[in-house]
Amino acid sequence: MELLEYTFVRNALLSMLFLSVMSGVVGTYIVVRRMSFAAGGVTHASFGGIGLSYYFGFNPTIGALLFAVLTAVSVEMLHTKEKIREDSAIAMLWSLGMAIGVIFMSLSPGYAPNLMGFMFGDVLTVSTSDIVASGVTAAVVLLLAVVFYRPVMYVSFDRMYASLSHWPATLISIVMAIVMALSISLSIKSVGIILVLSVFTIPQTIAGMMTRTLWSQMLVSGVIALIGCVLGVVFAFYFNLPAGATTTALLSVVLLASKVTIYLYMRR
Fold this sequence. Notes:
This protein is mostly helical. Helix content is 82%, strand content 0%.
């Protein structure tokens, strides 16, 4: 309980709570639709927005958010409208975003920002405004998951079937791409560009071994993400470790242990 005496620790734990909510819903959608590469492209392309933000002197989170949304929508549109292969569109926008970020970071006058903070995150520096933005986004994600659960499920598992069932599959995919971009970009400050994807994929993979429905996978993966994130913050505080890297390592160990346990059980 002594941890809760510190404001920055309380902010970090709240941030991880909202991150876990977004991870449970959005991460399950990413894993089920096999969009991990697309999510990685959105994550890295958002670095272009961070670079532009520093160059023009406004909040880097806003720049990352705008770039992430633009990238997610562009990938979806290039794939569906221009018939460009999805992996090719992702690769182009991924590299373009990173290039723009590096160029404008180098051109930024005055103090050069710490790139390591963006690459690997620093959850202990999360501000109140960051928490409010994450909380609002988490609430919107939960609302969408409850209200539009069935069409999202159809699009997740079989987009062609969703279209034949007269659901607006393209519109749903674009909306979910925007939600994915918002969730990922608001999580960068906590766990970093390089490590954020682990929170949106590892818990969902573990949950997929134990569940049979989409909603149960969302719920279980959110709980696993929350436990991993909270332990990451606690370990970071007591052992002076980077919280993002510690969280990723803990989740990876749980994934490996789950795989081994299932393998040994099947061999019985």
